[in-house]
Design brief:
mainly beta, 18-stranded mixed beta sheet, 2 domains
Length: 393
């Protein structure tokens, strides 16, 4: 599987499996960030940030016709010392990590009834994860959740999405100086669900943020992680794993803005696709502003196409406004099974379907190990096995 670095505009990989190209980070946004829906035009699919998204499958989230009326069950499990609050839209803590950057995110902010703020006090080190399970029970739902860590606090957060809904939501992560936060977001909706979410992180001085997105379910899923730094020395790791089946559209759009000196970021997303009209989109944007001297950043997307009829669009972009950096780079690669790997395994008596399973497990192993929550890791490996069995059946 060959990798392409610093890919020229319009470059295309073998066949019609994938397209990799560059465009400036600024051109991705049709309007400045805002809480007001009216500040964003209704998208028509020709805009840079919407050109890969099948708007007709958003069920009205993009044009204001999706009226809240559905139901979603939220279950929280939090260790002692963690505060969970329900607040109104006027709470000053909302929006600290970033304003909505597109019309659906603004619609979500304008439509939720109550927001949830989860606070881990300063210097608190949690030994068990904070768990939030959202189970859709039909209809249109909107939401807003904030996770805030005080200085030198440490926590792991697991957000699990199941059931069926048409949902738009904003999630914020605010890390105090020296804090450490790991977030695992699992998107395992029913096949008819629609999920669009902006997930924004503000990383304090010398703080560490690990963000893992795992996407299996849903008819259409569009996740938009965003990272900014509130002080020097911050580190961000963004990992993603997606398994896209026939007819599904999984889109992950990332933006890391290096706006302060001496910060780091590392992005690794991997996906497997199978079935007719399976479509995965990965947009990886990194902006290094003029003030961000000493930045060290790298991003990579790799995709494994298991059957004919699947399509990947992979678009890495790196925009640098200062020459005083430690390092910066990106890579994008898409391909089918490596025939040599399969031959090696089959030559040792391993049946073809078992050889394919081993290759896929090995492909994802690096990311599964990043989760650090044993029961979640086991669940994901089981889910991958189930997906592979379906492809053989």
């Amino acid at each position: 599987m060959a990798e392409a670095q610093n890919i020229p505009v319009g470059s295309t990989t073998a066949g019609s499996i994938a397209v990799a190209a560059e465009s400036t980070v600024v051109s991705r946004m049709s309007a400045p960030p805002s809480f007001d829906v009216a500040d964003f035009p209704v998208p028509h699919g020709r805009e840079e940030e919407w050109r890969f998204t099948p708007l007709e499958r958003l069920r009205g989230l993009h044009d204001g016709t999706a009226v809240a009326g559905g139901s979603i069950k939220a279950d929280f499990s939090a260790p002692d010392g963690v505060t969970v609050e329900t607040v109104g839209r006027d709470d000053a803590r909302l929006g600290r990590a970033g304003k909505p950057v597109d019309r659906i995110a603004a619609q979500a902010y304008s439509s939720f009834e109550e927001a949830t703020i989860v606070t881990v006090p300063k210097e608190t080190v949690l030994t068990e994860p904070v768990r939030l399970t959202l189970h859709g029970e039909g209809g249109v739902t909107y939401g807003h959740t904030v996770f805030e860590l005080g200085a030198f606090a440490e926590a792991t957060v697991v957000i699990d999405h199941t059931g069926d809904t048409v949902r738009a939501a904003n999630v914020e992560y605010v890390l105090g100086d020296g804090a450490k936060l790991t977030v695992v977001t699992i998107v395992d909706w029913a096949d008819t669900a629609v999920h669009v979410a902006q997930q924004s992180a503000l990383i304090g001085r010398d703080a560490s943020f690990k963000h893992v997105v795992v996407t299996f379910g849903g008819d259409l899923v569009r996740i938009h992680p965003r990272v900014e730094y509130a002080g020097p020395g911050g580190e961000a790791e963004l990992f993603g794993l997606y398994f896209t089946d026939a007819g599904q559209h999984h889109e992950h759009r990332l933006l890391v803005t290096h706006n302060t000196p001496h910060c780091k970021s590392n992005v690794v997303y991997k996906g497997a696709l199978q079935g007719d009209n399976a479509h995965a989109v990965w947009i990886g944007d990194v902006l290094i502003e003029a003030a961000a001297e000493g930045t060290d950043t790298y991003e990579m997307n790799r995709n494994l196409v298991l059957t004919d009829g699947a399509r990947v669009d992979s678009v890495p972009n790196l925009e640098i406004e200062t020459g005083e950096i430690v390092g910066a780079g990106h890579a994008s690669a898409t391909g089918r099974f490596d025939d040599e790997q399969l031959f090696y395994l089959m030559a040792r008596g391993i049946p073809e379907h078992e050889a394919r399973r081993l290759v896929v497990r090995g492909f994802f192993a690096e990311l599964v190990q990043q989760i650090g929550v044993a029961d979640i890791e086991e669940r994901l490996l089981t889910k991958i096995e189930t997906e592979l069995e379906a492809s053989v059946a």
